[in-house]
Amino acid sequence: MKKEFTVTPWEVSGNVDYERLIKEFGVTLIDANMRYKLVKTHPLLRRGLYFSHRDFDLWLERAEKGKKISVITGRGPSDKMHIGHLVPFLVAKSLQEQFDCEVFIPISDDEKFYVKEEVTFEKVLAYAQDNILDIIALGFKRGKTYIFEDFVYTNIYTYAAQIAKRITYSTSKAVFGLKPEDNVGWSFYPAMQAAHILFPQFLRGKHLSVVPVAIDQDPFIRVTRDISTHKDFQFEKPAALHSKFMPSLDGGAKMSASDTTSKVIYLSDNLEEVKKKINKYAFSGGKDTIEDHRKHGGNPDIDVSFQYLRYLFEPDDQKLGKIESDYRSGKLLTSELKSILIEKIFLFLKEHQKRKEQAKRNVEKFILK
Ligand code: TRP
Q1: Residue 334, Ramachandran bin (φ over 0: left; ψ between -120 and 50: alpha; else beta)
Q2: Model pTM greater than 0.85?
């Protein structure tokens, strides 16, 4: 039978069946027990956009015992950042706040340079600088957060080379589905990302790291876990936390930067742009007419504005619960729901843009040399 969806590091499309992915990838569902331990963390974790993991129970156990742990997650800088790109970083920050751990943030400019024809060397370097400021603006702890860019922190190559020696071409091909016409950068890159993931252990010695990522990145985790215990390294298998994809404004599978500009909210958008995009494009779970909506109510489960509030912009459980029940009952109209979201996004972006300006003065304190 033909698959109705595709999830690889290079392509996400169709209607993603997450239960099937859990089985195919052999990952573990985040259960109620684990969720209970995460009640103080970011809504993305406690409200379930993160849905599966590898060994995160072990990571939590170590964290609770005060053992050495770390977090690593990265960014491929092929465009300016939009709100969907914040997902793994908000979770990394939340884990840092709760467990006071170090966070490592690799910027894979080489990855995007290899795989995207339109991304030139100059462009990728410029986006990297811009994206780094957005990441710092989120408020990571200084002195506990290390950002490094593959084309700048070239020391990472020495680790990637040790790893590349232990990844066969056939593994790279099987795991990443390389095609004959792909350049050889694609086949080497997995060694780079494995070096990122093991970097905290290269630097600080053997310990457990967790990698929060969208589920499409799991192939990298698999390859890295496989080689991590090789006698050359004798590291711990890194743990992982997997998220579903944040829907694009129109309700599509993934909020991809290569989507048309209208479908995403950029971190640089102003109020007018936010208003226009949400009002015009945000997929609604409301009814077509006000009468119908009042009578039958809307469906928050498929409503993109509600999903953005749920996962990113309304951390207060009571307030979110009220919005949800009012929408379901028809008391709250789609236009009103959208206004709530617009206001929240506007306040967030205003603050973010200010912090991004300030980040320009502190950037050196986060960059690994
Ligand atoms: N490949 C990731 C992406 O395209 C970015 C990334 C680079 C990353 N290095 C990483 C993610 C290490 C997690 C861990 O989004």
Answers
A1: alpha
A2: yes
